[in-house]
Amino acid sequence: MQSLTRAAWLAKIEQVSAALGIDGDDPATWRQALVRAWTLLPLAPVTVQGAYGTLPEADIVAAGDAAYAIGGVAPGALDLSGCGSDAERLTGLGGWLRAAERKIAEMDTGRPVRDPNEDWHHEADGEGFFLVPVPRSAWRPAYLPGALPRPFTRRALLRFRIIPEVIRGLPVHFTVHPRVGLEDAAMSFGASLFADFDVLPEDEADERHFLAREAVGPTPEIVRADIVEAARSGCFAHVFPELTLMPEKREVVPATLAAAAWNRAGEAVPGPDLVVAGTWHERYGEDAWNEAVVYGAAGEELLRFRKLFPYRDEKGRHERIELGEVLEILVTRRGLYGFGVCLDFCQKATPVLTELDVDWMIIPSCGDWRTMRDHLSAAHQLQVSFDTRSFVVQQVYPKRDDGGLGFVLAAPERVVERTEAELVVSQSFSVYPILT
Fold first, then answer.
1. Which top-rank group of organisms is this from (predicted)?
2. Based on CB atoms within 10 Å of each CB, which residue in 66, 96, 173, 372 is the most buried?
3. Cβ–Cβ < 8 Å for 166, 172
4. Which domain holds residue 290?
């Protein structure tokens, strides 16, 4: 959303406060009101947004308790007219949002979600938003005294997250994972990399563009072995890098999952909840996309996502691809997963994925240390904004002299400066404990 001038923002507060239209016994009106009131934060001038990060959590908690108590069993009306400073307005607004989400959580006893693209969708002033409930077991903790400042994107709401329907012109689309059940305490991710890797172009003589014809290095035997090892290692997710799995090799993934090829007689070990089967330059008629396929534990196709920004190689040639137009989110029992391909995440000129509020960001990539260094920067921004953890699996290209096959950023809880030596990976298959 485009921030308003301060005068326009103050007028907007009055307008929104007077038009929330809440029926105290109707949770649908509460959800609508929560979304509309929340929009006052991204609409605020950037200096006011920054000030929210400095508010003491104790003040927001107290304002929330007061707002809830005024209404007896529900928050009273949003009224910031008596506030004399921006800090008072933000504290009052933050408290009301906390009280309203508490009311919704108490009224909402677990509505079944048929289609989140419809069930979570709300309109506010002509713009669409998704009000996404956070599972009770994962409610965001209150802001701890003495901790570093956190922006409104991380602490305005503790029981819900609000995601714009469109981010920088790209619509957001949800897919619900079919596997349900209680969370496990631990979670691991797996990564595949390939020795002697190369990508052969379709037309060597084309000096302006390139399109992949063949990936050298991956074999059906290696792909199958890695899926088997990921399952036996208890991986929740496994990721193959960008431009590594041609269609005939990619098909090994769902076939191995469907056959549960890792199980010995009498065993029933489940496969990974999701496998990102690399990406490839997929042809559809005369056009091509850099496209990834995500499979579920039984080999079912869950979704596809397409690269948003074309890569330019060291010779100045661009990928001859059409560009993706959707931001895909997978709803799983372990939170929301967002996806992107290499440059979608690491380029800085027109960032998109760093504005997507998800729990986990999965990035198949291909490139050198400079590429991974920019992934680190993007992962840090996403962690600061939304507490997102990013898992980047990058095939090294061109080939390194030291035997390194690629880089893996293993979804760290806190993104800090890392050296090239710390992130380079020399083994073709690796597993990373993410939650222990």
1. Bacteria
2. 96
3. yes
4. 187-435
Q: At 151, is the pLDDT very low, low, confident or very high (cuts 50, 70, 90)?
A: confident
Q: Are 426 and 312 part of one and the same domain? A: yes
The pLDDT of residue 274? 96
Mean pLDDT within 33-53: 96
DSSP 52-101: HTTS-HHHHHHHHHHHHHHTSSS------TT--SHHHHHHHHHHHHHHHH
* Bridge partners, 187 (sequence order): 435
In terms of pTM, does the model score above 0.90? yes
Per-residue pLDDT at 30: 92
Judge if 71 and 142 occupy the same domain. yes
Query: What does R_g of the chain's alpha carbons equal in angstroms?
Result: 23
- Helix, strand, coil fractions of the chain, as percent rounded to 5: 30, 25, 45
* pLDDT per position as a tens digit, 166-211: 999 999 999 999 887 656 668 999 999 999 999 999 998 888 999 9
pLDDT in tens, 84-114: 999 999 999 999 999 999 989 888 766 677 8
Q: What is the DSSP letter of 1?
A: -
Same domain, yes or no: 152 and 252 = no
SS3 (DSSP) at 29? helix
Q: Indicate the number of domains in the chain.
A: 2
- Buried b / exposed e along 37-75 (16+ C-beta atoms within 10 A): bbbbbbbbbeebbebbbebeeebbeebbeebbeeeeebb
pLDDT band at 72; cut points 50, 70, 90: low
Decide if 96 is inside a domain: yes
Residues 62 and 41: their CA atoms lie apart, in Å, by 19
- Contacts of residue 12, defined as CB under 8 A and 6 or more positions apart, other chains included, come to 4, 40, 43
Q: How far is Cα 240 from Cα 77, in angstroms, rounded to an integer?
A: 51
Q: Are residues 191 and 142 in the same domain?
A: no
DSSP 8-class letter at 135: P
In a shared domain, residues 235 and 375:
yes
Neighbours of 270 (CB within 10 A): 14
Q: Nearest-CA neighbor of 164 among 138, 132, 133?
A: 132
Q: How many H helices and E strands in the chain?
A: 13, 21
Same domain for 51 and 103? Answer: yes
Which CATH number belongs to the domain containing residue 260 in this structure? 3.60.110.10
Per-residue model confidence as pLDDT tens digits over 393-411? 999 999 999 999 999 999 9
